[in-house]
């Protein structure tokens, strides 16, 4: 009987340690994304650059005014240059509505629905999909795609 109790205690403690490690990793991943947006909001490409892998792929999908579905690809350097050109009078705020973080080894996937405000005025909504890689202890964004829409944001809020 005592062997069973010891085995159960060992199993429970292993599960607790694994859950704590996963929460620690999720917190580190969330911190990377929050740092990325901190840089965006401030117009500070140096802050953003710290979160991006050197070979990141960046894409945006949207529906244009003619109803055609579009996909645009942007380079890391262009994204950083555009952010650094932000006018000091412009205020960017991307309000993340939730985080859905999945981790398997050194790969993480994060889904973040959002609302974007320019100078305190609603601009658009959508969702971001981040893929992150644990580069020997440092989580880095390796792929970022966002979907943008100007209307029907209520459906997005309902999915939270």
Give a structural overview:
The protein has a single domain (2-158), classed as Roll (Nuclear Transport Factor 2, Chain: A). It is elongated. The model has no long low-confidence stretch (mean pLDDT 89). 38% of the residues lie in helices and 41% in strands. The chain is of the alpha+beta class and 160 residues long. A hairpin with a 2-residue loop joins strand 4 (100-104) and strand 5. 15% of the residues are buried. The longest helix is centred in the first third of the chain and has 41 residues, at 2-42. Strands 1, 2, 3, 4, 5, 6 and 7 form a 7-stranded mixed beta sheet that branches.
> What Rg do the Cα atoms give?
19 Å
Topology-level CATH name: Nuclear Transport Factor 2, Chain: A
The shape is elongated
Structural class given helices, strands, pairing?
alpha+beta
